[in-house]
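The instructor's notes for this session suggest beginning with a concrete chain rather than abstract definitions. Hand out the sequence below and ask the class to guess, before any prediction is shown, which regions might be ordered.
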Amino acid sequence: MSFDWINKYYKLDVKVGLEVEREGKRGVVVEDMGNYVGVIMEDRPNQVRPYHPTDLVYGGMAKRVPKISRSAKRYQEYINISEAIGISFGEYVKREKEIKEWGRS
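After discussion, reveal the predicted structure:
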């Protein structure tokens, strides 16, 4: 199911591990983010950022797909919902389990 809509709509072949470039910066596709492509850029190795599929220049497959640390992933999850929940990162960490359970219901 990964990247199905993007690949069909934009006639691309996006997949995890594909090297990309945007404005002279290189990165690797690591995640399907719905209508966007999740990329870790070389200049920000601990941050998955969403890019519009047409904003990227696609290359070949990367030799290694970067891994994001658990703490960086936790912060990224907070950033993704921070406007909706309106609390600080410290408060999010304290209430993370409660917030995730609330999101599942």
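Then share the key points. The two ends are 23 Å apart (CA to CA). Residues 46 and 69 are 7 Å apart (CA to CA).
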